[in-house]
Amino acid sequence: xxxxxxxxAAAPSRSSRQLKxxxxxxxVRDLQREVVAVHVSDALRLYLLEVVERTRSHEALALGVxxxxxxxxxxxxxxxxx
Length: 82
Fold this sequence. Notes:
The protein has a single domain (21-81), classed as Helicase, Ruva Protein, domain 3 (Orthogonal Bundle). The chain has four helices and no strands. It has helices at residues 6-9, 25-36, 42-57, 67-81. It is flat, with a radius of gyration of 21 Å.
């Protein structure tokens, strides 16, 4: 009889126990620092802010892009450029 507890369902599969990290935590932090250091032009910042503002005031949208959403979008642009 199979157990129906959440712990039994969450037991790692054989394949997941074989996973090996490809980067150390420090390497991930180094990459994050490199991305953050990518220059963002004033023109791009103004564009991001304009789009965000329009999402906040558009009549068809109940919610606009948040401040965190805007920052995440900027990070995506930096990562793309990196």
